[in-house]
Amino acid sequence: MRLTAMTDYSMRLLMYLGNRRERLCTIAEVARAHGISEPHLMKITHRLAQAGWVETIRGKNGGMRLAREPEQISLGAVVRDMENDLAIVACLGGQTDCVLVGQCKLTGIMQGALDQFLTHLDRYTLADILPAKVADQTNSQRTVTGLERSSEITASLTSPSTSEIT
User: Fold this and answer.
1) Do the Cβ atoms of 54 and 48 come closer than 8 Å?
2) pLDDT for position 94
3) Angle between the 27-34 and 38-50 helix axes, to the nearest 10 degrees?
């Protein structure tokens, strides 16, 4: 089973918006960031907005943002909304032209696999796939700077002095 590019791009769009909660984002900027065509991304945005995952604002200063908190956006629900056909085998999609209908146990096994796949995705939200925010940028910068200074001091202590070379 393989999810469509639409679902893949939907997840990318949601992650992009989830990382930029403080402002509206444009289709053009997301398209550039992920190398997706703007018309394709427009279609995805429209579908996500219809499903209630994204809020869009028209106009000169318009854009889009998440319509819900990341913790309220189930990955399984997004996949269900974005995929047109989750039938792993033809008989799950309603096709009844198979000569094995009523005799084959494959349908039930495949349905169970699909159910477990979606149930697994339901355990996770957009918040689970967003990168962790650094609580205090200044402290992390000090740590890096401090490490750099330590290594410089270590390097200068281990290098020979001019009196040892001559």
Assistant:
1) yes
2) 65
3) 120
